[in-house]
Design goal:
Length: 593
Amino acid sequence: MINAQEKILECKDLRISFKTNNGTVKAVRGVSFNLYKGRTLAIVGESGSGKSVTSKAIMGLLAGNKIVEDGHILFDGHDLVKLTDRQFTNIRGSRISMIFQDPMSSLNPIMRVGKQMTEALILKNKSVRKNAAYVFKTISRYLHNALLKIEGIDTKRIDQIFKIIDKDMNLLSEEDRQYLLSFLPKVVSKTENDYLRSIRRIADELTLAQDKYLQGFETFNRDVFKDYIATLSNIKTDTDDPLSEEKDDLAFTFQAALRASLKKLAIAESNIIKGEKLQAKIDEKKFKGVDTSKLELKIRSFGSEIVLLPSDIFNQIRSLFQEFIGNLNSILDTRGTLDATKNSNDVLDFLNQKQNDSWFRLPSSDAKKKAIEILEEVGIPNADRRFRQYPFELSGGMRQRIVIAIALLANPDILICDEPTTALDVTIQAQILDLINKIKKERNLSIIFITHNLGVVANMADDIAVMYAGKIVEFGGVNEVFYNSKHPYTWALLSSMPDLSKRERLEAIPGTPPNMIIPPKGDAFAPRNKYALKLDYEQEPPFFQVSENHYAATWLLHPDAPKAVPPKVVLQRMEDLREYKKNVKKNGGSNND
Ligand SMILES: Nc1ncnc2c1ncn2[C@@H]1O[C@H](COP(=O)(O)OP(=O)(O)O)[C@@H](O)[C@H]1O
Ligand SMILES: [Mg+2]
């Protein structure tokens, strides 16, 4: 049951565009999905639908002309959309790894396979060390400065102690450690008090300001927010403060959410004005005395993105404030009681740990042992011999195995596979898919599997999201989406699938995907969809729930829509797939439900 699963990554309303000479390409237009621990989410759609852009956003690998318009990617308490490059290097390749269609793009053609693997391990180790050294230096510099300001302290002695610490914490004599500990609680409690005070200040300011600003929202006075956002920006603290990142995170998260809501409000507002002009109907002050049911209709028809009334958005903003203040209060609660002595010990332990991390080196014999182990895990026979070969000496399938091995070196939680088998022939493709299933099971990995070929995922996916023109149009459990698909685009993908028993080639879906500089309003698939209703050209369909774990965004699911039955060929495909899957299971194929 989905609800009982542990959510490991959540993508919320992601919107990404690219600036080009011809205009802004709206590549990803509001994508949301959850990835669960130990499950495979397949993202399926034709070329250009925004699959790679979505996955590159998760990896922090988007091209320089990107504009992240909106959205969040939540992973392990971070919003990946907001990470700095330095923060990303800690996650990319260690918590989240990615493999691509062309294994050669990830391999160095003139370096032996083994060297590439140990190099990756050593590099990884280096970056952990670099990061540890950075944290160590920052904290110890901060402590050093803070201690010098304390009354009654022997500044010369402190300077000496920190010279020793800079070399090696472990060289610190017990006497010096005790001396440090006798003053450290003062610094720790002052730091925490400063922190609490600034949080308290933000909470107070917000509570005070809330009513005023909410009034501003109600009257659409957006100027009111300019100085407010400026205030929030000023919460930033000096860079020596080890807690500055945490403080910034809090302020930024709120700022970003507020900005996003304001933008929605502005769009809604301008759509109403357009509606007024065209229909000359709403002349009263915005809402008062207006038949809101009509108003909603207008908003729906003038903005394909907007399905909410401004008053709904206003309520969202209100709850945003409340949530934020609640958040601050909970920090105040947990930080309210201090134990400076205990915390001082924690600080020393932490420093010690960081310093050890930053000095630990991986011996190359250990790196080789680990590399060979993983080569064996990904099914490479004679790993010892392969270790000494160059990529050109290996077949395409072997190369992709090596790339998977490299991706696994850091023991990631999430593996993103972007069309990993597209360049391989059918038999090899099946082997690589089996391998991915095997490592998923053995390592309890969460996988995002991207493909343009729905057929590939029948035995891979637990969950499927079908993407078209930068949006998810249908998602749910693999069985729901395969055997009870509801969106005509999913039907088109099913009918373009090669017949599994005959090994045919994938057939293109008639028509072409839309121009993403001016994406069509309504259902973007409408012009290629023979089931399209008039409404499909006008309004974007919302997600309709089909079953507990199955949703599709098509007006065909509206209770008033005419009944639509999938084409015969699609019904036949669903039947074939069911048979195929049964056989695969019988023959010991890997699938996990
Ligand atoms: N750096 C870029 N500059 C301009 N457009 C881009 C860039 N990267 C991707 N796009 C466009 O974004 C859309 C989605 O691309 P992509 O995610 O690669 O599709 P796919 O689903 O095939 O992986 C396409 O229209 C593509 O041309
Ligand atoms: Mg792609």
